[in-house]
Amino acid sequence: MKVIWSDELSLGIPQMDEQHQRWIDILNGFYDAIERGDREEAISHLFKGVEEYTSFHFSAEEQFMADIGYPDLENHRKIHQSLIDQVHSARERYGQGDRKAARELAAFVLSWLYTHIAKTDKKYSEYYASRAK
Ligand SMILES: [Fe+2]
Question: What CATH number is associated with residue 120?
């Protein structure tokens, strides 16, 4: 299922909101390509894009949390790492011929992402807001 951006997902931090929107676009595009049954090269190209953007965004987000002195950074970093590991292993499985891996990953990451932004990321944005007062 695709994810539609809504205010519920806004952290009120423009840089992070923009990256989350971009990430959702990339994931939705990946999901669409799989649903359309695009060719394998196209899917594996998009798979690579998902993997790269996930790493890029997590690094930027972790840097932001470090900059504001967010106390729960280590825990948040572990949660990110476990998603990166799953994306990575799904790409390996896909590369080894497991065609279900892409579809499963797209569905999983999209639902993961929604909950992660709405619950886990929300915590650092609340910390940021309380600190800015
Ligand atoms: Fe996060």
Answer: 1.20.120.50
